[in-house]
Design goal:
Keywords: Cell membrane, Membrane, Transmembrane, Transmembrane helix. By secondary structure, the protein is mainly alpha-helical. The chain has 4 helices and no strands.
Length: 107
């Protein structure tokens, strides 16, 4: 089975969107799901409200943090396997470095 072709710009688009969210989104997995909904359903219209609700329900059923799984799935849906990797990497990197920056400047 071959992967469907994805426009090359989509991987960069996914990476940028998730990096910006990672740098600015605070809170736990439930808060992240709200940020994802606002960004990808309302603002960017990557998927419908119903499709997002179904995706969240599926990811909450699976073991592990639902927000990581939803982010990975959104990247996969938008730009294939590399988009999934880009979403996970960018959000994790951005969130980690945003927290380090905030912690370093709090003192």
């Amino acid at each position: 089975m071959s992967c469907p072709p994805y426009p090359p710009g989509r991987i960069a688009e996914v990476f940028k969107a998730f990096l910006l969210l990672g740098l600015s989104a605070f809170g736990g997995p439930i808060a992240h799901l709200g940020y994802f909904r606002s960004e990808f359903v309302e603002r960017r219209r990557w998927l419908s409200e119903e499709a997002y609700a179904d995706l969240v329900a599926l990811c909450q059923f699976l073991p592990g943090p639902a927000s990581s799984q939803v982010g990975f799935a959104l990247g996969l849906m938008r730009a294939g396997p590399w988009g999934a990797a880009a979403a996970w990497t960018a959000f994790t990197f951005g969130h980690h470095h945003g927290a380090l920056w905030a912690g370093g400047h709090a003192a």
